[in-house]
Amino acid sequence: MASTYPINLAQMHGVPVVVIGGGIVGERKVRGLLAVGACITLISPDATPQLGRWAADGSITWHQRRYQCRDLAHRPALVFAATSERATNAQIASDAAALGLLCNVADAPEEGGFHLPAVYREAGLVIAISTEGVSPARARQVRDCIAALLQQEHQHPDK
Which of 136, 137, 132, 138 is closest to 2 using CA atoms? Predict the structure, then answer.
């Protein structure tokens, strides 16, 4: 029996989301959330240059410090544990679960309540590929193969 239930979240504009971790994984999560207009709070003592630029231009709110359990007190719709510290990510997952919050745990998908698929978007079409958090690289590979087929179809519609 499958252990995941696929879903697409809609109406994400302005929805409060907390991303904990300012590295490349956190940046990737923020990039996808910005694309749908979420209201993002980043918690991290440091951040990638791109995250810093987004904070400087007001696209995200950055609390330049380590995670504290009170960071979830306002009950964001989604929580992303994306630090480079296993114990911190585990604590975030535990705190989120205690509050009934949906949490994605980058380094231990089984600890969280949701996984992010590899996504391909074009006008009127969204394709999401998931390996239930087991192999994000494989999901990206399958997504890229499907994207290449679709792009080839657009270039040669008669075939």
Answer: 132
